[in-house]
Amino acid sequence: MTKIKDSSRAGLTRRRFMAAATATAGAFGIHPSPTAAMSDTDTIIAPARETPIVRRVDVLVCGGGPAGVGAALFAARTGAKTMLIESMPFLGGVWTAVACRI
Questions:
Q1: According to DSSP H, which parts of the chain are helical?
Q2: Fewer CB atoms inside 10 A, N or C side of the chain?
């Protein structure tokens, strides 16, 4: 059996990770929109409309499936102001939807 050297964190810093992610995004032509910007008021200014901000949170989790519920619980337990949104009237995602035959 061969021994695998643990080098998962060797030399990887947040700065190097962000530089690699930015370079990868640039290679695929993914760029942030220069027209969207934050204003000092409670709205986000978009090119065609103003969207009111109804609640300010540290972490917004979209989807109440197993991963979303876990992410929301973890964020809340670490002290972050957390909001979980779900389009269905129940949590559980596809697993629950299939079991309930909705």
A1: 14-27, 66-77, 93-100
A2: N
